[in-house]
């Protein structure tokens, strides 16, 4: 089966909006003493929470990921490959770049802590560099669960996301109404897992076999979201806002589930027109590089903020109109443009590293199979725990180097990457290397 350009576009589009969204809500203010603070835009200007309806695009990221994983696992399974071998290949595609990124950031944190950089500033920077990490443990878990989830899909089809949806609603009800917060954590896997599972259904035609499916999903999801926000207890913001309880993303709520359904429906409605557009080579030449650099963009997109902060805010060169004024919003345009230029430079500098990691990944996984599966599963558990810790506390909690999660991520990544041995057998087609894990 040839690659679906629309699926690749969804991944590229999601990455682009994540990057721009994070940049847009990042606010830097230079105080009278030269200190830099970062007010929370969504909390200080509550009307901006409506903007998150356009920037919360992660449902499509999981949808595209499920579509790609479904095809990759189906080919591996047909060729006689094992679930453990497939999971190891997919997991290492995420953990190699994430591990290198974390190592470099932690090295910088260690140096800054050694030279006595202000702990508060270091903690803020460490949080900014880890704010996107929530996605990685969730996606690793869904990748590990892909074989059984796909088996359930082959047997029950659309019944699987329906059951997952009922479980997500029950978990959210317990978390919100009965105040059992830990049950709500299940929705990280349940809600985003529904989008992932719908990717399976989309690939197999279960969402496109009837003309009414897409508009029904868009309409029902939209109405449910409006009701849960307008009448129910949930806020409109689809991004976390400090002090907002209940929220919609930490963990995903019933309102986020409704948004998943609505967004998938809108995606299906746009598919035909977008595929015609993407068939134009000029358009595809713009989209393709973004998808190819998706992990690099996702991991490194906050580094330009630090570079620009040092160059323009610490030096006092950046103008400082009143926060939220018309002049301040007008300056968001050059802010985004400058960050885009810096990020392009970062991607160019990192391209040799990106190619080197791809080569290492292929060298490890070419003609290889698992010797024993236990290092893989132990490594995955350790890596997920470490990434979850980074996502929650950043790379410098309290302005200090977090050694336990750092060692945990290193150990977990090594166990996953080195859990294979050379064997004259490859269960995956060569073109599977083109499939992005995310």
Automatic annotation (TrEMBL):
<feature type="transmembrane region" description="Helical">
    <location>
        <begin position="401"/>
        <end position="419"/>
    </location>
</feature>
<keyword id="KW-1133">Transmembrane helix</keyword>
<feature type="transmembrane region" description="Helical">
    <location>
        <begin position="335"/>
        <end position="353"/>
    </location>
</feature>
<keyword id="KW-0472">Membrane</keyword>
<feature type="transmembrane region" description="Helical">
    <location>
        <begin position="374"/>
        <end position="395"/>
    </location>
</feature>
<keyword id="KW-0812">Transmembrane</keyword>
<feature type="transmembrane region" description="Helical">
    <location>
        <begin position="214"/>
        <end position="234"/>
    </location>
</feature>
<dbReference type="GO" id="GO:0016747">
    <property type="term" value="F:acyltransferase activity, transferring groups other than amino-acyl groups"/>
</dbReference>
<feature type="transmembrane region" description="Helical">
    <location>
        <begin position="12"/>
        <end position="30"/>
    </location>
</feature>
<feature type="domain" description="Acyltransferase 3">
    <location>
        <begin position="5"/>
        <end position="349"/>
    </location>
</feature>
<feature type="transmembrane region" description="Helical">
    <location>
        <begin position="50"/>
        <end position="73"/>
    </location>
</feature>
<dbReference type="InterPro" id="IPR002656">
    <property type="entry name" value="Acyl_transf_3_dom"/>
</dbReference>
<feature type="transmembrane region" description="Helical">
    <location>
        <begin position="124"/>
        <end position="144"/>
    </location>
</feature>
<feature type="transmembrane region" description="Helical">
    <location>
        <begin position="254"/>
        <end position="274"/>
    </location>
</feature>
<feature type="transmembrane region" description="Helical">
    <location>
        <begin position="94"/>
        <end position="118"/>
    </location>
</feature>
<feature type="transmembrane region" description="Helical">
    <location>
        <begin position="295"/>
        <end position="315"/>
    </location>
</feature>
<dbReference type="Pfam" id="PF01757">
    <property type="entry name" value="Acyl_transf_3"/>
</dbReference>
<feature type="transmembrane region" description="Helical">
    <location>
        <begin position="156"/>
        <end position="179"/>
    </location>
</feature>
<feature type="transmembrane region" description="Helical">
    <location>
        <begin position="185"/>
        <end position="202"/>
    </location>
</feature>
<protein>
    <submittedName>
        <fullName>Fucose 4-O-acetylase</fullName>
    </submittedName>
</protein>
């Amino acid at each position: 089966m040839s690659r679906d350009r629309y699926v690749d576009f969804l991944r590229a589009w999601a990455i682009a909006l994540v990057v721009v969204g994070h940049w847009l809500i990042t606010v830097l203010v230079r105080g009278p003493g030269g200190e830099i603070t970062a007010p929370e835009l969504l909390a200080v200007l509550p009307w901006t929470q409506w903007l998150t309806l356009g920037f919360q695009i992660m449902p499509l990221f999981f949808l595209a990921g499920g579509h790609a994983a479904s095809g990759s696992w189906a080919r591996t399974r047909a060729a006689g490959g094992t679930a453990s071998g497939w999971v190891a290949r997919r997991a290492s595609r995420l953990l190699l770049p994430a591990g290198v990124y974390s190592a470099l950031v932690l090295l910088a944190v260690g140096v800054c802590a050694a030279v006595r950089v202000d702990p508060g500033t270091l903690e803020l920077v460490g949080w900014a560099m880890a704010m996107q990490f929530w996605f990685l443990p969730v996606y690793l878990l869904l990748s590990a669960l892909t074989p059984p989830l796909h088996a359930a899909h082959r047997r029950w089809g659309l019944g699987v996301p329906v059951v997952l949806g009922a479980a997500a609603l029950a978990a959210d009800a317990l978390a919100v109404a009965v105040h059992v917060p830990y049950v709500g954590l299940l929705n990280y896997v349940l809600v985003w897992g529904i989008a992932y599972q719908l990717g399976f259904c989309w690939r197999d035609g279960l969402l496109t076999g009837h003309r009414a499916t897409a508009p029904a999903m868009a309409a029902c999801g939209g109405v449910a979201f409006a009701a849960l926000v307008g009448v129910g207890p949930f806020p409109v913001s689809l991004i976390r806002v400090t002090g907002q309880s209940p929220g919609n993303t930490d963990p995903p709520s019933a309102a986020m589930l409704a948004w998943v359904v609505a967004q998938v429906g809108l995606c299906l409605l746009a598919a035909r027109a977008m595929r015609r557009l993407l068939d134009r080579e000029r358009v595809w030449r713009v989209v393709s590089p973004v998808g190819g650099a998706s992990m690099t963009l996702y991991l490194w997109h906050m580094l330009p903020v630090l570079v620009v902060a040092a160059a323009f805010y610490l030096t006092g060169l950046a103008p400082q109109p009143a926060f939220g004024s018309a002049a301040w919003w007008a300056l968001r345009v050059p802010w985004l443009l400058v960050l885009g230029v810096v990020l392009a430079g970062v991607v160019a500098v990192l391209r040799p590293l990106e190619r080197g990691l791809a080569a290492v990944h292929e060298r490890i996984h070419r003609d290889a199979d698992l010797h024993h599966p236990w290092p893989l599963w132990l490594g995955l558990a350790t890596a997920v725990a470490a990434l979850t810790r980074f996502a929650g506390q950043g790379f410098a909690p309290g302005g200090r180097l977090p050694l336990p999660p750092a060692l945990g991520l290193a150990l977990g990544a090594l166990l996953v990457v080195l859990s294979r041995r050379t064997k004259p057998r490859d269960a995956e087609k060569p073109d599977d290397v083109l499939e992005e894990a995310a």
